[in-house]
Amino acid sequence: MNITAFALFLAIVLLTLLITYWASKRTQTTSDFYAAGRKISGWQNGIAIAGDYMSAASFLGIAGLIALGGFDGFLYSVGWLVAYLVVLIIVAEPLRNSGRYTLADMLAYRMKSKPVRSVAALNTIAISTFYMIAQLVGAGAIVKLLLNIDYEVSIIVIGILMILYVVLGGMLATTWVQIVKAVLLMAGTILLSLLVLGQYGFSMVEMFNQVSTKFGQHFLEPGLLYKNPLENISLGLALLAGTAGLPHILIRFYTVPTAKEARTSVVWAMFIIGAFYIMTTFLGFGAALLVGPDKIKAADQAGNMAAPLLAEALGGSFFLAFIAAVAFATILAVVAGLVISAAGAFAHDFYSNVLRGGKATEQEQIRVAKWASVGVGVASIILALLAKDQNVAFLVSLAFAVAASANLPVILFSLFWKRFNTAGAVTGMLAGLISSIVLVLISPNVMEPEQALFPLKNPAILSVPLGFLGAIIGTLLSKKEDQQKYTELYVRSNTGIGAE
Amino acid sequence: MDEKKQSTQPDWESIASSEEFQTLMRKKKRFIILSSIFFILYYFALPFFTGYFKFLNNKIVDSLNGAYLFALSQFFMAWILAILYVRHANKTDQLIEEIKRKKEVAE
């Protein structure tokens, strides 16, 4: 085993546990647990959003996709940033103004709490679980490649760490773990990019010339990886509409004191995330040139080792160890965010509001929130162990598709459509959830490509319209509801009057 | 912000029908609709034109082609639009302050 890598991994574990210890003393109330007491500042939250969002899949996966497939991998990078415009312009501030801890808070504001919360909680748990399994399975495989630690051992270690952060330190610990990770990831990526560009006289054009000479100009052109343009459009829609419906991102806006701070945090996040995804070009093409596709594929067929191997080629074993540690921190920060979002759906939405009708005491709520975090964590560990050697990459696109089809339509209608009601919200969310899952099950992700009933890997192009349609039909076929609550939400979400 | 318990609920109806709130919402919706149309078109133009046409493969500088430049421009589009939004929102914040002041006078 690489001793440097092991020492760096240990340093990250110690640092994050220190943060957790510090945060645990400041986590007393439900508002502390779910929302870090709403005391995180805008720029801190912006860095944390970036840390919550930029997963190992995007760091290692995109670098690999570009290194092996050229230009097409970059399409993901574009979608992952532009999607934040929906978050910034439409969703973040109204959500901050009208909710407390979960996405369902906003949806339940003007509607019958129990049915809306139940279905919204189900969606949050589904999205977070799909995302988490993909992250953990990927993490197990990556740690095995990097450190040669058994898959099972690394899943259990990562799982225990994420449970500790959340149970002991709540959102405050999660936030600072995400901030540390974002700083490490950006430092590692900037350093790698500079080293790559340094090889070509700091000229991007020169790097592209080299790519073109070595692999042919078509490597820089679209169409090498994705032949069907409709697939790209469907993927683009899932990323654009899905990001603004991802519960683990949206709950971060409750950690800041005001809507204005929420706005500031999205802008910070956009500059960090954008800079990061632009640099995926240097990582990907750099790995193709300086490591070579054969060596990358020999280490891992999917290309996940492109960035670490690039680090080794440029900076030797110490730099490899550093990038491996960055990847490890990346995984920890993302899974911790997922645990707290799923636990909030269980404890705040389902237990406190649906089962107990909002009458649970503060102590009971905290206790249930912590047990829910343990439950979510343990269940995810078991599922990830069972999914060993399965190809679970499609679970990430499924998570985005559910977020886009089940959550975004009802978020938009809750905020802007007066006639919208409980029945519409429930049918909309279920239509989006069920259509996404069914379409993925009959797609080439799961079925043999020739026999697949639905030809696209990403269902968004059909499931997002179905989500909207479900919400519209459900609303129009049921009775009008009290409009007073809508007026209240409309004023509150747009002005912040009465916001917590 | 402390969770101050308000003794009386604000009069939502009267705020909603006030001239300031109507102006606020008109300005907000105008920005949301115009900017959304713009970025949705700009964004989907990338998979559309790279998927169905070949002209973006034209080289611009040496090996640097239109497809990469267009993809890269998406990042700057997003950043510029984000800054424009913040400038717009800082202005509508003043309207919100106005609404809050009037509400307090009324109470």
Oligomeric status of the shown chains?
A: heterodimer
What proportion strand of chain A? under 5%
Please estimate the helix content of chain B.
Answer: over 70%
How many helices of chain A does DSSP assign?
19
What form of chain A results from the Cα inertia axes?
globular
Choose one word for the global shape of chain B: elongated
Name the helix and strand elements of chain B from N-terminus to C-terminus, one letter apiece. Answer: HHEEH
Biggest interface and which pair forms it? A-B, 62 and 55 residues
Instruction: Give the N-to-C terminal Cα separation of chain B.
Output: 21 Å
Strand sequence of the main sheet of chain B, in spatial order? 1-2
* CATH class wording of chain A: Mainly Alpha
**Biggest β-sheet description of chain A:** none
Distance between the first and last residues' Cα of chain A: 50 Å
The fourth-level CATH homologous superfamily of chain A is Sodium/glucose cotransporter
Q: What portion of the residues of chain B fall into strands of 2 or more residues?
A: under 5%
At CATH level 2, the architecture of chain A is Up-down Bundle
Count of extended strands of chain A: 0
Work out the count of structural domains of chain B: 1
In the residues of chain A, how many domains can be counted?
1
Fold and architecture overview:
The complex is a heterodimer of chains A (500) and B (107). Chain A has helices spanning 3-24, 30-35, 42-53, 56-69, 73-98, 103-108, 113-147, 151-198, 204-215, 229-243, 247-250, 259-290, 293-299, 306-355, 362-386, 394-416, 422-441, 460-476, 484-495. Chain A has 500 residues and is mainly α. In chain A, helix 8 (151-198) crosses helix 14 (306-355) and helix 8 (151-198) crosses helix 15 (362-386). Chain A starts with a helix and ends in a 5-residue tail after the last helix. The mean pLDDT of chain A is 93. Chain B has 107 residues and is mostly helical. Helix content of chain B is 76%, strand content 5%. The two termini of chain B are 21 Å apart. The relative contact order of chain B is 0.14. The chains are: A mainly alpha (500), B mainly alpha (107). At the A-B interface, helix 5, helix 9, helix 10, helix 12 and helix 19 of A face helix 1, helix 2, strand 2 and helix 3 of B.
